[in-house]
Amino acid sequence: MTARRAGVPVLVWALTVVEAVYGKTGAARLRWLLSRLQVQEVAQADSLTAVQLLRDAGGPHGHKYAIDALVAAMALRSPAPVLVLTSDRDDWSKLCGDRIQIKEV
């Protein structure tokens, strides 16, 4: 892992773990992967920031946007510079603008 060799922390949020795991992901594999990452907890302040991000983005709503907004709030509280890897660049641009670097995967 390039980030690990460079001494750059790789953060993942607890919500992302739940969202990303598929039925075929074995428990042992998941534990191994998470042992290589820093799993961040969701705080109440993140929820309030997420609400504001959704309002500022014009009010998208629903499950999909709620998770993205919460993860965006947590990314915004992380020390800069922040790079977010995502499959949905458009949503992240709406939520965070240019406050974080976004790379589509």
Helix content: 40-55%
Q: Overall 3D geometry?
A: globular
- Rg over CA atoms, rounded to whole Å, is 14 Å
Order of helices and strands: HEHHEHHEHE
CATH names the topology as Rossmann fold
Largest sheet: 2 strands, parallel
> pLDDT below 50 for ≥5 consecutive residues: which ranges?
none
CATH superfamily: 5'-nuclease
Mean pLDDT figure = 83
Structural class estimated from helices and strands:
alpha/beta
Please report the distance between the alpha carbons of the first and last residues. 16 Å
The percentage of residues in β strands lies in 5-15%
Overview features:
6 helices, alpha/beta, 4 strands, Rossmann fold, 105 residues, two-stranded parallel sheet
Question: What features would you describe in this structure?
Answer:
With 105 residues, the chain is an alpha/beta fold. The chain has a single domain (2-104), classed as 3-Layer(aba) Sandwich (Rossmann fold). It is 53% helix and 13% strand. It has 6 helices and 4 strands. It has helices at residues 2-6, 14-20, 27-35, 44-56, 63-76, 89-96, and strands at residues 11-13, 38-40, 83-86, 101-104. Strands 1-2 form a two-stranded parallel sheet. Strands 3-4 form a two-stranded parallel ribbon. α4 crosses α5 (63-76). The two termini are 16 Å apart. The model has no long low-confidence stretch (mean pLDDT 83).
Blueprint of the fold:
Layout (H helix, E strand, L loop, with lengths): L1 H5 L4 E3 H7 L6 H9 L2 E3 L3 H13 L6 H14 L6 E4 L2 H8 L4 E4 L1
Helix pairs in contact: 4-5, 5-6
